[in-house]
Structure formats: structure tokens, C-alpha cells
């Protein structure tokens, strides 16, 4: 029986898909069977009529059936559901997570936007991302950008996680520049303020398709990264 982990961002467009891909390739390199699941994907690519994250996972990484509910409007899932009049059953999504846990050692579940995003709106209230995390029993990994503004975004997301009893395992930093004084200090300051120890720093890649695998090889050459990766994923 495997375990699902939820990947959230400190906002939308932070780079969860890229970081989730980096984790997927790293865990595969460690010999784990791993898959990616994107249960609520909003925003269709109008030009080629595909859903960007799902197409990326399936075409670039070879992941099978990574999607579940796909909604055309480029909005929060709860609004996309209202705008399209879609019928959504969160129990089916939770069941699918458990099915995948039966099939793989590790299931990386990518959220939509950040941690406080509403998934479904009903007359009795919202079904929130935090409810979904609780229903699946998933530990969480944060993805943040590295520059100015990251401290506030991580600290507030972390406080929200604490209020909702969410187990946050670690944080990964995207668009990291090692020579940048703010980036260096943000990591230290965030660790002091939240206790979150950064698992990895991903630079901005000139060509994501080509450079991601090179970046993973660099990361895997760092013993501290592989050791921490094993600890986070109990692998
Ligand atoms: N490290 C990086 N180097 C180069 N491009 C990146 C990097 N990280 C993210 N991007 C680009 O930024 C855009 C947003 O990234 P991504 O789709 O991963 O964000 P997200 O957090 O998954 O968004 P959403 O909130 O829609 O789920 C994409 O075009 C992606 O290719
Ligand atoms: C459309 C976008 N790229 C994501 N898929 C969904 C982001 C939802 C954000 C909701 C919010 O925080 O206001």
C-alpha cells in the first residue's frame, strides 16, 4: 500500500507542475513506483484544446490517466463547476486517490492554485482543498517562489495549514538564484519562522522540456537532497 502526498503552491502559477515533475523523476530514479494525479484541472488551452498540466504529465513524463475532473474556465474550481453546471462527486476523487495508492508506492497529487482554494460550492458550504487533503489523509508539500514576497506567502500558507491540522512535510523553492541575497535569506528566514526545511531549489529553466532532466541529475548528485527526499517520502 502506497501513500499519496499533496503538492500545493503559495498561489497560482508558482510552478507546482514543474516541481511535481521534478519530484516524480527524482523518486523514479530512486527506484520507486510513482504516479501523478491532478484531480481538478481548470483552464483549457484554447489553441490546441488540451489541459496543460495533464498533457504535460502524460506527454512529457508518460504518466497514465493523470486527470479526473477537467473544466474549461480558467478560474477557481468552484467557479468553473458553477459556470459549466458540472456534476462533481468528491467521494469519487478520494476513491481514485486510494486506488492509486494500491497501485503505486507514491502518488503525487497536484492541487489547483494554493491551499485555501475552494473546490466545490454547495448550499451547505464549501468543500475546500483542506477538506480533500483530510479526506485522503495526505501529508502536504509546499512549493514557493524564491524572491521578494515569498516570506509572507509561505508564512501565511503555513499558518492556514496549522489551523486546519495539515501535516506539512517540506517546501521546495522554484525560480531560485543561488547568488541572490534575498533568495538565500528567504530560505533561512522561512525556516526560522515556520520550521520548514527546504528540500530543493529549482532554477528558472531556459527550456523546461530539455533542461528539467538535467536539473534532476544535478539534484540527484547532491547527497543531502537524496537523503532528505527519502526521509520526506519515507522511501
Ligand atoms: N523553474 C521554471 N523554469 C521555467 N519555467 C517555469 C519554471 N517553473 C514554472 N515555469 C513555467 O511557469 C508557468 C506556470 O508554472 P506551473 O504550471 O508549474 O504552475 P502551477 O503552480 O502548476 O499553476 P496552477 O496554479 O495553474 O496549477 C508554466 O508555463 C511553466 O512552464
Ligand atoms: C486557473 C489556474 N491556472 C488554476 N488552475 C486555478 C487557480 C485557482 C485560484 C483561486 C484563487 O486562489 O483565487
Calculate the mean pLDDT score and round it: 97
The CATH class designation is Alpha Beta
CATH topology (level 3) name: Rossmann fold
Q: Structural class, from secondary structure content?
A: alpha/beta
- What spatial form do the alpha-carbon principal axes imply? globular
- Individual helix count: 9
Q: Any overview of this molecule?
A:
This protein has one domain: Rossmann fold (3-Layer(aba) Sandwich), CATH 3.40.50. Helix content is 45%, strand content 24%. The chain is built from nine helices and nine strands. The strands form two sheets. The protein has a seven-stranded parallel β-sheet, with helices on both faces. A two-stranded antiparallel sheet has the order 5-6. The model has no long low-confidence stretch (mean pLDDT 97). The site of 7,8-diamino-nonanoic acid has 9 residues, from β4.
Amino acid at each position: 500500500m502506497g501513500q499519496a502526498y499533496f503538492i500545493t503552491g503559495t498561489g497560482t502559477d508558482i510552478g507546482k507542475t514543474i516541481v511535481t515533475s521534478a519530484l516524480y523523476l527524482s523518486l523514479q530514479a530512486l527506484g520507486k513506483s510513482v504516479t501523478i494525479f491532478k484531480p481538478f484541472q481548470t483552464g483549457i488551452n484554447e489553441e490546441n484544446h488540451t489541459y496543460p498540466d495533464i498533457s504535460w504529465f502524460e506527454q512529457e513524463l508518460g504518466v497514465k490517466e493523470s486527470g479526473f475532473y477537467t473544466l474549461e474556465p480558467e478560474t477557481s474550481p468552484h467557479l468553473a463547476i458553477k459556470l459549466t453546471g458540472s456534476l462533481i462527486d468528491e467521494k469519487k476523487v478520494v476513491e481514485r486517490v486510494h486506488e492509486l495508492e494500491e497501485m503505486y508506492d507514491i502518488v503525487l497529487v497536484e492541487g489547483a492554485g494554493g491551499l485555501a482554494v475552494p473546490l466545490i460550492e454547495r448550499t451547505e458550504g464549501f468543500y475546500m482543498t483542506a477538506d480533500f487533503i483530510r479526506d485522503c489523509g495526505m501529508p502536504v508539500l509546499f512549493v514557493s517562489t524564491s524572491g521578494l514576497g515569498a516570506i509572507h506567502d509561505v508564512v501565511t500558507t503555513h499558518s492556514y495549514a496549522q489551523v486546519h491540522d495539515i501535516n506539512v512535510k517540506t517546501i521546495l523553492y522554484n525560480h531560485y538564484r543561488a547568488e541572490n541575497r534575498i533568495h538565500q535569506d528567504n530560505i533561512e528566514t522561512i525556516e526560522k519562522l515556520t520550521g520548514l526545511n527546504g528540500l530543493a531549489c529549482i532554477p528558472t529553466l531556459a527550456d523546461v522540456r530539455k533542461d528539467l532532466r538535467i536539473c534532476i541529475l544535478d539534484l540527484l548528485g547532491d547527497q543531502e537532497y537524496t537523503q532528505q527526499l527519502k526521509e520526506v517520502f519515507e522511501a
